[in-house]
Design goal:
Blueprint: H1 2-9, H2 14-34, H3 37-54
Length: about 60
């Protein structure tokens, strides 16, 4: 109801941008389920883990 009130009384784009922000906020959950990150992130994590095993960090000696 508040959004309808804003649309009726304002001439700026703020109410439309508010609606777009709310829609994007709720759409983010669906985007994570069906987006490319769902398939890309497991592959990238495997590559990072393999790289970490093959390239261990060298500890720097502490200087006094």
């Amino acid at each position: 109801m508040n959004l309808n009130f804003l649309w009726a009384g304002t001439v700026s784009t703020n109410p439309t941008l508010l609606l777009a922000a709310v829609v994007l906020l709720f759409a983010a959950k669906g985007a994570m389920s069906y987006g490319g990150d769902r398939f890309l992130m497991p592959v990238m994590m495997k590559k990072v883990q393999a790289w970490k095993q093959n390239h261990p960090r060298k500890h720097m000696p502490k200087s006094a």
